[in-house]
Design brief:
With 119 residues, the protein is mainly alpha-helical. It has five helices and no strands. It is flat.
Amino acid sequence: MQPDLTGLAVYPLVVVGFTALAMGAAWLLRPKPRQTALKRSTYESGIPTTGETWVRFRMSYYLYALVFVVFDVEAAFLYPWAVALHQLGTFAFVEAILFILILLVGWGYAWKEGALEWK
């Protein structure tokens, strides 16, 4: 006796259809603003820009931000672990130590590559 797979075949069609319907409705019902020169201009604290508005940023700024986000997420993962450490037991302690070691390896790699040097 084979299971009825009709629902499995219809499900992707329903998902794609609902997504297309929702996106089409959003496109039809969206506000359509008129593009003027003022709306396309660069806004910088209300002061008109002088000179070239496209400025290149150093890659090190992005690397600092990326390293910050990684360690910020690490802290967010370690807080619940620290609160519930007594109920979790030895296995959770070892897993957390492994987690910290992996992050330290990543931090050492970023340091070795010069991602933490302000130039």
